[in-house]
Design goal:
6 helices; globular; transmembrane transporter activity; WAT1-related protein; 120 residues; WAT1-related
């Protein structure tokens, strides 16, 4: 029972926190490297080499090269703090688009083993 709880509830949370912390760390590393004269395209190349060595299969499934170029160019014009804050606004933008397109979720807030149920 405890193992099932860990896989269903804790593992996705740990994966999400790890991904966000890695993203913030790379943003800070990028800002420091470019402020000392490193070209942004070289940094992206290095990050893809590391990603290919660590996560080779996933780098071919999710191509995000253009998105990273735009994100790093934005960091070069502003700060890693702003980039991290903007990346955390994704759920807010999703909610605003859902309201605009009238795609709202109805929440059934009944208590069922300390979990909330959501239906469309």
């Amino acid at each position: 029972m405890a193992r099932r709880y860990c896989y269903n509830d804790v593992a996705p949370l740990i994966a999400m926190v790890t991904a966000v912390c890695t993203n913030v760390g790379v943003n800070i590393l990028f800002k420091e490297a470019t402020s000392k004269g490193m070209n942004q395209y070289i940094f992206i190349t290095y990050s893809y080499v590391v990603a290919a060595l660590v996560l080779l299969p996933l780098s071919f499934i999710f191509p995000r090269f253009l998105a990273q170029i735009c994100a790093y160019k934005g960091i070069a014009y502003s700060s890693p703090t702003l980039a991290s804050a903007i990346s955390n606004l994704g759920p807010a933008f999703t909610f605003i688009l859902a309201v605009l397109f009238r795609f709202l979720l109805t929440l059934k807030l009944k208590k069922m083993e300390n979990r909330f149920e959501c239906s469309t």
